[in-house]
Amino acid sequence: MLIVTSSIGQEIRRKLGLSSIAVVISLVIVAIAGVTLYRVFCEIEYGKVVAALRAQSLGGLLLSGGFVVAGYLALICYDVFALRAIGRKDVSYRVAALASFTSYTIGHNFGAAIFTSGVIRYRVYSTCGLSVSEIGRIAFITGLTYWLGNAFVLGGGIALAPAAAGAIDHLPITANRLIGITALIALSGYMLWLLPRRRGIGRSHWRIALPDPASTFVQIAIGSLDLTLVALAMYALLPAQPGVDFLDLLVVFVTAMLIGVVSYVPGSLGVMEAAMFIGLPQFPRETLLASLVTFRALYFFLPLLLAALLLGVREVRSFATGIGRPV
Fold first, then answer.
1. Cα–Cα distances in Å, from 146 out to 14, 37, 104, 129?
2. Which is nearest to 291 in space by CA: 244, 252, 236?
3. In this predicted model, what pLDDT tens digit does every residue of 77-101 receive, in sequence order?
4. How far apart are CA 8 and CA 25, in angstroms?
5. 206: exposed, middle or buried (Cβ count in 10 Å: 0-12, 13-18, 19+)
6. How far apart are CA 252 and CA 76, in angstroms?
7. What is the pLDDT of residues 50-77, one digit of tens each?
8. In Å, how far are 189, 205, 240, 250, 291 from 52, measured between CA atoms?
9. CA-CA distance, 151 to 273, in Å (whole number)?
10. pTM for the full model?
11. What is the C-alpha to C-alpha distance for residues 12 and 269, in angstroms, rounded to an integer?
12. What's residue 322's pLDDT?
């Protein structure tokens, strides 16, 4: 299996490899996040953080946990959609759910999601007869779904609430609104490009047929639902005062998550938090840190434990029955 998964990583790296520019951007993001967190932690009173953690209501925790569960259920739709898009309707929902949940959860926490998620997907889907190229197509389509959702949510959110984005990028309201509108125009242009005929990218066995316009609407809905549910999980953990509109929180939170993804830091640890501190200056830092710590436990840590347990149980059963041994 190591040889095969290595070839997956090498092929994806060749097709979607990181450029030197991307590495520089990542380093800049990490440096800015480091400076921001240093300044924040120098001023934080940790006794107040503990008090804020203890003051969190059980109702808020349960509500946030419910949105986290719903968000991970929405994540399963990524793989289910991708399997249908490549014509593998024979793969059961149970297998798709296992592959999706474990690959995304572990990929979210350990970083380099293209590679970590690809390895886990191969381990799960190869026992169902999927080839390396089919698993590569799944990875591409799920990634496309995520970015389409981001374009719609952030484009629409920034167009409607440009001041929220301005808290992070410090651009004028007019400039941010133009960015949001441009994202929506680009998304519309992509939809129009799909209309005349079925489009595809790549060559040979790596050629991927793009979903048609109707299916692309479904992709956008899946990606948008995922992002909205996760933002709601964060929103439920914030204190009632000072108040913040959900749309403003959605723009700040999705931007923070996106910056974390671009940074390639495992779990976006520190990067997402720094962006949230910058984007929500109205909240006391101790209170916001308590909310962020709780969110990280609910959305990252606990699902990681469950994913590791599920994957471990599956591996034990596979070896016990002689199915799915390494190749």
1. 21, 28, 12, 26
2. 236
3. 999 999 999 888 888 899 999 999 9
4. 25
5. middle
6. 25
7. 999 999 999 999 999 999 999 999 999 9
8. 46, 54, 13, 22, 8
9. 22
10. 0.86
11. 24
12. 60
